[in-house]
Write a structure and sequence with these properties.
Blueprint (H helix, E strand, L loop, with lengths): L2 H8 L3 H17 L4 E5 L2 E6 L2 E9 L2 E6 L11 E2 L6 E5 L7 H13 L19
Antiparallel strand pairs: 1-2, 2-3, 3-4, 4-6, 5-6
């Protein structure tokens, strides 16, 4: 695990750290070639500089966010924000369904909107895949 992400995990409670450790492992297993780093204070995975998935601790729980998740057609992912992102929350390890998680991560790799150039396009997103 990268040092900055390990430091992020180390600041969490034991139960939240366990959830994040599982998410980290599963995301890395599926997105082997993705760059991952702390971005806007939490772990995020990128393909070609485009954010795909990330997670972080909020009051509501550990939020898993897919930047293009509204295009996944997955009822357990809830729309977030005014663009194409969708999210779900975990409060205990038992909340994580590994089959759902793997399917969502795979969709994150194959369904992408161009967030990398959103500023250049003045908030307009185009679909990459």
């Amino acid at each position: 695990m990268q040092k900055d992400i390990k430091n992020y995990h180390d600041l969490l409670s034991d139960s939240d750290r366990t959830i994040c450790d599982i998410l980290y492992t599963e995301i890395n297993k599926t997105l082997e070639d993705a760059e991952h780093k702390i971005w806007h204070s939490h772990p995020v995975w990128f393909l070609d500089d485009n954010p795909i998935v990330g997670y972080h601790k909020l009051k509501k729980g550990i939020r898993l966010l897919f930047w293009s998740g509204q295009s996944f057609d997955e009822p357990l992912l809830k729309n977030e924000g005014k663009f194409k992102a969708a999210e779900c929350y975990y409060n205990k390890v038992e909340d994580i369904n590994l089959e759902d998680l793997e399917r969502w991560i795979n969709k994150g790799e194959s369904i992408q909107w161009d967030y990398k150039n959103i500023v250049k396009r003045k908030g307009f997103l185009i679909r990459l895949k």
